[in-house]
Amino acid sequence: MISVVGHKNPDSDSICSALVAAELLKARGLEAKAVRQGEINRETQHILEIAGVDQPELSTSVAGQQVWLVDYSDVAQAPDDIKDAEILGIVDHHRLGDIMTVNPLEAWIWPVGCTSTILFNLFKMEHAPITPALAKLMMSAILSDTVGFASPTCTDKDKAAVEELKSIAEVADLDAFIKALLIAKTNIEGLSAAELVEKDLKAYPFNGRDVVVGQVELATLEQVDGMIEALEADLERRCEQDGLAFAAVMLTDITTAQTRLLYKGEWAAKLEKHQQNGMLMMENTLSRKKQGWPWLQTELA
Ligand SMILES: [Mn+2]
């Protein structure tokens, strides 16, 4: 049995692509199942509901198992005992990480907006059947990762995939489909500061130290007006407890592509010069991968 596992703090792509990749492996005649490393978010819950698919089972240990990784290739984002697993495959759309394997593996790493875009093309290449449920999972993951095609990470391949998938999924009104998805994505009602930071937190080893950068996608920055101090306190707590050199969270208004960066840690002073009126605003910044983190890497170096 092959376990297909997305990254820690799973986003919709990590869950949907794990489910979809497991079906691709089954279509090849293999035994496979999707697993998840953490709780699913509200957007993913919405997607699973409309696709009529159950969430993958929770599993944070893969020792002794055969695994496929989807949506990452970094050790920091893998299950803690990944070194004791046999990695058979990777499907990803991020920079190449530091995963090492003992044996040759099947790796599909494309510079596109979403892991599901690659999987869609693999299904086509292998003439594997795409059910309406799988089509809904894939198009939702693509629309989530590309923020409804608005992100600079979005490519023609992502758009072409959704164009085909929406017919298979029998989605007649794509705009309404995207709107419902983005409403679920930006719903932060009732979440604590710690839950918000944790929501989509990624760890990056950098210059021999550990750094974390989270992102909260919002319909308006006003949604977090009353929480700034609590969010900063939570970042500070993480630096102290986990020995991080830097902890940040990008608060991104996905309607205007404006991001406010909150940050703490030993390296925080490196960013002070970019503050205005006590705030660090990043204009035209939707993507952590293509905009936020590359900029931070040059500033923190
Ligand atoms: Mn992704």
From TrEMBL:
Keywords in alphabetical order, please. Hydrolase, Manganese, Metal-binding
Residues in DHHA2 domain copies: 178-300
| This enzyme's EC code(s) | 3.6.1.1
Tell me which stretches of the chain form a coiled coil: none
Cofactors required: Mn(2+)
Q: Does the keyword Ribonucleoprotein apply?
A: no
Output the superkingdom of the source species: Bacteria
Pfam families registered for this protein in UniProt = DHH, DHHA2
Recorded GO cellular component terms are:
cytoplasm
| UniProt GO molecular function | inorganic diphosphate phosphatase activity; metal ion binding
Q: Specify the protein name.
A: inorganic diphosphatase
What's the source species for this entry? Answer: Vibrio xiamenensis
